[in-house]
Amino acid sequence: MALLAIGLGLARGLFGHAPFTGPTWAVRKEILKVTIVARGNLESAKNGDITCTVRSGTKGSMSATSIKWIVDNGAEVNKGDKVIELDDSGLQEQLKTQNRVVDEAKADQVKADEQYRIDEIQSQSDIEKAVNARDLAKLDLEKYVDGDFIQALKDVEGRIETSKSDLETWKDRAAWSKRMAKKGLMSKVQADADESRMDGARIALQKVDEEKRVLVDYTKKRTIQDLTAKLAEAERALEKTKIQTKALIAQDEAQRQSKRSVFEQELSKKKEIQGEIGKCIVLAPQDGLVVYYVPEQVRGGGGSQQSIVAQGEPVREGQKMMQIPDLSHMLVNVRVPEAMVSYLHSEEDPKDKSTWQLAQVKIDAFSSRVLQGHIKLVDTVASQQDWFAADVKVYKTIISIDTPMDGLKPGMSAEVTLFADESATPVLVVPVQAVLGTISMGADRKCFVVGPDRQPVMRDIVVGMCNERLVEIKSGLREGEEVVLNPRPLLKDDSELKPGKVRSKNEDEGSSNGENGKKGKKKGAGKGPDSPGSNGPPSAAGPSAGKEGGPSAQQMQAFTEQMRNGTPEQRRDFLNRIPEGPGREKARQWLKDQKLEVAN
């Protein structure tokens, strides 16, 4: 290929400087309008979204239930009409089981409440018994100290006095009897008997004195100590009973609270199941038209879950099933390429129309009417693109239709023209395809200009704003100069320059859901057009292009030898690099005269 590039200059010298006859464009001034044409679908500004709120039955399950009945897509409904009935058979079985669990929990709660009351009464009884025992022990101690002991002491002292009196009496009797016996008036036996009785009275007095000593020194102390210990024990028993009853009541209370909590939890579960059963009947939130919901991922062929809304199909918790849109205010959902997003802005003040960026909407079903609208919202994050155009970033843009019109329905296709920017005064413009360069070059680009000798010459230019067809020239060209519209054949083989690409109508339209087709490549916003991929055959500009004079004999011999050593395909590429006209025909005839084969 390099061989042909070197020989191309010799060929031009050999076959003459044929004037450039390819398509050209005369540089001119005009008002440059940056418009963006995109296609999308209609949707309502206010959608009554209907979502599956039934919870998944088991942890990790992707399906909550299935659709038992659903209203037809496109049917008109009124607020409160049934639109979906979900299968609740599984929930009904759960409710039966839960009813039994609730009944058992209720029985346990009642049992715990009754046990609490029983133990409360028993605790009161035990405490009263302990209090009574303590009071009796205290009373016994007081009774002994202030009663029984005094009484016993007085009894002993009384008996001592009696014994003393008896002893004195028998002393007098014995003395008298002894005198009488000495006088012979009484027998000695009688006198000895009285003496013995006196001794008995003395012993009786000693016994009672000993009884008093035991009572005062031992019985009193022992009894008081015993009764005091019994009182202390009764007080400890009372305190123990209070602690035990308090612990028992606290335990019963905790058990009662636990059973009540279990019952309330199970009852709450029952109510939740009943609530889930109630969610299986879905009513229309507003008047409108039923539209089955299809996620954007599914529209584009993506998404791991193909959400199908139909009778018998499973549905997930949180899955949006349908929408009931308000048809009085419609929007258009389109996708705008990344390169053009910088031209767009959302409405700054919904009430101030001067802040709106205007647009025109043409509905396919009403192609004769053009509706006025404005940009309502531009996403800040790129949308997921179709698998066949994954390298194209697009941003969802919402267009509000400001012109009232009957008959608009969600899903209708529409073409939107967005008025992005406009030059304040006429500027120099050339077609996009005439500009050469890459994104890395920024605004500095190149183009081929046809000179007075009708030979194309590469020139440096600086570009400005652009649209799908034209690009602004800030410097490098003058009004009236001609630029080459198809500069690709004039480029060298190793050139990295690429011509700009004109967006075709099909590329502007994109897919029916508002996303660009796989050919919709982006263009640099405000820096001239980007370059598409180099998918055409490259060519080289000859070293003697635009110079006077012909080749020498040595050059001619070298060129002939190169042509002979080349392949038919290389000779064909050589011819394609010579501009169409007499020069190419002369070269073709020369190759034929040399009997050199040229590939078709």
How would you characterize the overall build of this protein?
The structure is a single chain. The chain is an alpha+beta fold and 600 residues long. The chain has 3 domains: 1-17 and 550-600; 46-86 and 286-416, Beta Barrel (Elongation Factor Tu (Ef-tu), domain 3), CATH 2.40.30.170; 91-278, Orthogonal Bundle (Helix Hairpins). It has helices at 2-15, 89-183, 188-279, 296-299, 338-341, 505-509, 553-565, 568-577, 582-593; strands at 24-26, 28-30, 33-44, 47-51, 65-70, 76-77, 82-86, 281-283, 288-289, 291-292, 314-315, 320-325, 330-337, 358-363, 366-378, 394-401, 413-422, 427-431, 436-437, 444-450, 456-466, 470-475, 482-484, 498-499. Strands 1-23-20-21-22-18-2 form a 7-stranded antiparallel beta sheet, with no helix packed on it. It has a 6-stranded antiparallel beta barrel with strand order 3-13-16-15-14-17. Strands 8-7-5-11 form a 4-stranded antiparallel beta sheet. The longest helix has 95 residues, at 89-183.
Summarize the structure.
By secondary structure, this protein is an alpha+beta fold.
Whole-Å distance between the termini?
Answer: 17 Å
CATH architecture label name of the largest domain: Orthogonal Bundle
Number of helices: 9
Structural class: alpha+beta
